[in-house]
Amino acid sequence: MSEFPGVSGTPGIPGTPGIPGVDPVDRAAFRRSSPLVVRWRSLDRLTRQHPSGPLVVFTSFITLLLPAGLTASGPVAGVALVLVGYAAWTLTEYWVHRGLFHWVAAPGTAMARLHWTLHGHHHDHPDDRRRLVMPLAVTMPMALLLCGLSRLALGAHWMGFMAGYAVGYLLYDMIHYHVHHPRPRSRAGRALRRWHMLHHFADDSRRFGVSAPWWDLVFGTAGGRRAAGSRRRPGDGIPAE
């Protein structure tokens, strides 16, 4: 039995709305549903995150690092390091999304299950509100690790770099939440929403940049015909603005 009525599958594993045998009226509700991504409920709670969590934690992180970085490196070098850190995040965002979250795993394997846990769930349930930002259980250990590595590589200049990197990450998380829920009202917000919805509902082999779509232009993944192997399902369309 599925955890969601009207959708075939096993518990915690997505069904496929928009195909014969699934009631079309269930699609919107299916996209909003929030099944388990790990089978232990105590661990599954760690995969859910309210957007206020990263906003509070990483704003505090940036507030501490930014002035310290500008003091340690000087204003000119400090600002340059912040900009380099931000640019490094945008490249990380693009390549993690493209290379890790969208690798192709053989169906039915443990790697396929891992892929669905990491990102496939988001494509099947893009309106799951508690999984639109990265959970702090993942991002905080990663932030501490990156702080250590950048300190080894940059010495006292690590703080400016990591402040810029954290700014980029926080912008990504908040933009990703905003383009999914609620619908943006600004022109830039609507453009980013349409860009990301094309990735979700037209061709998931393109438009990997969420907060920084210019890397898709640089690396040739900005548009064009739907590639073979896209996850687009019959009957799915780009949500109206």
State the main characteristics:
mainly alpha, 241 residues, disordered C terminus
Q: Could you write a compact summary of the structure shown?
A:
The protein is an all-alpha fold. It is 57% helix and 0% strand.
Characterise this structure.
The chain is 57% helix and 0% strand. The chain has helices spanning 26-32, 41-44, 52-73, 75-100, 110-124, 136-154, 158-180, 187-201, 214-219. It is mostly helical and 241 residues long.
Low-confidence stretches: 1-22, 226-241
What is the number of beta strands? 0
- Supply the number of helical segments: 9
The overall average pLDDT, rounded, is: 82
Oligomerization state:
single chain
Helical percentage? 55-70%
Radius of gyration: 19 Å
Ends apart, CA distance between termini? 34 Å
Shape: globular
SS content category: mainly alpha
Largest sheet: none
Secondary-structure map:
Blueprint: H1 26-32, H2 41-44, H3 52-73, H4 75-100, H5 110-124, H6 136-154, H7 158-180, H8 187-201, H9 214-219
Helix pairs in contact: 3-4, 3-7, 4-7, 6-7, 7-8
